[in-house]
Amino acid sequence: MLTALTLATALLTTPVQTEWIETDATPIEVMVLGSYHFTGGGQDLHNAEVDDHLSPERQAEIADVLDALADFAPSKVMVELTPEHEAEFNAAYQAYLAGERALTVNERQQLGMRLAARLGHERLYAIDQASDMDFEGMMTAAAEAGQNRLQGEFANFNAAVPTLMADMESGTVMERLRASNSQFAHDAHGLYLTLAQMGTIEEPIGVSEMGEWWTRNLAIFANAARHAEPGDRLLLIYGAGHKHLLEQFFEDAPGFRIVDPLDTLEE
User: Fold this and answer.
1) pLDDT band at residue 173, thresholds of 50, 70 and 90?
2) How many angstroms separate the CA atoms of 173 and 170, rounded?
């Protein structure tokens, strides 16, 4: 039986060769479009304030975004929705295609459905996995454990967030999405590793909560990958907080290639 120890020993003593994972299949391109929530609110730690994205001005700006995303020409569009709601979501999509219903303001519809319709897709893919995050529990544990450094890092993050929020709350939809996919937004994922340290060895609440976060994103990656076929171009429309891990998983997985949305969403 191959154990973790024997595998590690083999990797350390054998010249690195990748033939065992390489195939002749065309790489699957993946664009993870980090998005803010067009509806406003949401259940994230910080949520951008938004105006009416059904207004004529915002609809025109969304059309500009769709023009840009159409250049990527995704073969499959995937959204932040759990699989048990996929059938209902696609029924609404078919009703939209038939002219029997108007779209809501949610980005899953304004970006996902509109783009899929433009590209002639028969369906969209729901790939999320539900989870919650106990921020209050982690903060309480850090305070009780006297983890001043971690509390300070969390406070520094909260102090820096208004800069990102300002970019996500002003400008065109294109500019807001560029901010959602910026290096600042990418680097902000380090906060989750600060949270992971909160608590004690005996009661590691941070590890438990962040384990669920990593598991959720790993499930999202796996759900998307299961639908992928050689030569596909996948577009994942997701809350910006997921972008770091999803791109990391696809970058590390054989057969996938990441496409940066900033190369498509021109200023």
Assistant:
1) very high
2) 9
CB distance 249 to 218 below 8 Å? yes
DSSP one-letter code for 77: E
Name the amino acid, one letter, at 143. A
CB atoms within 10 A of CB 248: 14
The pTM (predicted TM-score) of the whole model is: 0.87
> Edge to edge, what strands does the sheet with 256-258 contain?
125-126, 76-79, 233-239, 28-35, 256-258
Closest C-alpha among 105, 84, 101 to residue 92: 101
* Confidence tier at 160 by pLDDT (50, 70, 90): confident
Which pLDDT value is given to residue 138?
96
| Residue closest to 193 by CA, chosen among 164, 224, 150, 133 | 150
Q: Which residue has the tokens 């999202």?
A: 220
Q: What is the pLDDT of residue 66?
A: 98
